[in-house]
Specification:
Layout lengths: L2 H4 L7 E5 L6 H10 L1 H4 L1 E6 L11 E3 L5 H11 L3 E4 L9 H21 L4 E8 L24 H14 L5 E8 L1 E3 L8 H9 L6 E4 L5 E2 L1 E3 H14 L5 E4 L5 E2 H11 L5 E4 L17 H7 L7 H14 L8
Protein name: NAD-dependent epimerase/dehydratase family protein
Organism: Singulisphaera sp. Ch08
InterPro entries: Epimerase_deHydtase, NAD(P)-bd_dom_sf
């Protein structure tokens, strides 16, 4: 009997993705499918299958329902699990806790019940950290987490569940800072700016504080980081995924405005002029670089161009009355 079968893995490795249709999930799925012949089979799980995805590589499941999760895991028999599913603001606090914390705990419990080796990469968030003093930047994985928002707490609880896992589970957490690039949702400032600039019906964009700085990392680099952790990461550790630097939100706005031809007028809304969250945020990425060899490759400027090109090409729904 060969080693894979002895370990309880399928003969062909199976990569199971949750949240594969989301902002982070799509580039990860694309990266894995691009090397599917050499890596193994890619299976996605979720409530609804996108119409352009083959049915034989999708499992329908409610990740907040234990029996539904059990059925999907049993059918997939994964070697590696990438858990990207969850919710972000402006979802309600109750939705955040159920979708981020409870769903992660159910997934890990189900995998543990099977008593088979499996590597699991959970996606965390810089929001878990809460406030970080500027003298502690760039912030490392050892910094204490003091989340101040329901979203940050829901992700921190999911991280705690992952760190509590024991063999045969091999769990690593990718704490992602500020992903950007094609598909950036409008719930994020730069995604909202690009959507407004590309909308021919918009003449004015009202914005709040533009002086905050964030560690923007391209979503395609994030996909590479998740794969690198699955292959080389060490179980029981958190890995910060960012660039190690930060960019001013206002500079991103200005570049998107230039790319758009400066058709839309930008004005400051005094009611939103106070910064939300920390003034600056930067990740110490030495751990993931040392353990996996991963480094971000896509520049801030290239990410903004890709964001703009995708927003401009996005189909627009007709107005309803």
């Amino acid at each position: 009997m060969d080693e894979a079968r002895m370990l309880g893995h399928p003969l062909v490795p199976v990569y199971l993705l949750t949240g594969a249709s989301g902002f982070l999930g799509r580039p990860l799925r694309d990266a894995l499918i691009g090397t599917e012949a050499s890596r193994g089979r890619v299976v996605t799980v979720g409530r609804h299958r996108p119409l352009d995805w083959p049915a034989d590589s999708f499992l329908q499941a409610d990740l907040t329902n234990l029996e539904s999760v059990r059925a999907a895991i049993e059918e997939a028999n994964p070697s590696v699990v990438f858990h990207l599913a969850g919710k972000t603001p402006p979802a309600s606090a109750s939705d955040l806790y159920v979708s981020n914390s409870v769903a992660t705990a159910l997934l890990l419990d189900t995998l543990r019940e099977r008593a088979r080796p499996v590597r699991v990469v959970l996606t965390g968030s810089a929001a878990e950290l809460g406030p970080v003093d500027e003298q502690d930047l760039p912030v490392g994985e050892g910094h204490p987490c003091r989340p101040e928002t329901p979203y940050g707490l829901s992700k921190w609880l999911a991280t705690c569940a992952g760190l509590a896992a024991r063999p045969p589970l091999e769990v690593m957490i990718a704490r992602i800072f500020n992903p950007i690039g094609p598909g950036t949702p409008e719930s994020q400032s730069l995604g909202r700016f690009a959507a407004r600039f590309s909308d021919p019906t918009v003449e004015e964009l009202r914005v709040g504080c533009l002086d905050t700085r964030r560690d923007f990392v391209d979503v395609r680099d994030v996909a590479r980081a998740l794969i690198a952790l699955a292959e080389h990461g060490r179980p029981g550790l958190v890995y910060h995924v960012g660039t190690g630097g930060s960019q001013r939100v206002g500079d991103g706005l200005e570049q998107l405005q230039r790319l758009s031809g400066e058709r839309v007028r930008v004005t400051i809304d005094p009611d939103r002029a106070v910064s939300a969250g920390p003034r600056d945020s930067r990740a110490d990425i030495r751990r993931i670089v040392e353990h996996t060899g991963w480094r971000p490759l896509i520049s801030w400027e290239e990410s903004l161009r890709a964001l703009w090109n995708e927003a401009r090409a996005r189909p627009r729904l007709p107005l309803t009355v």
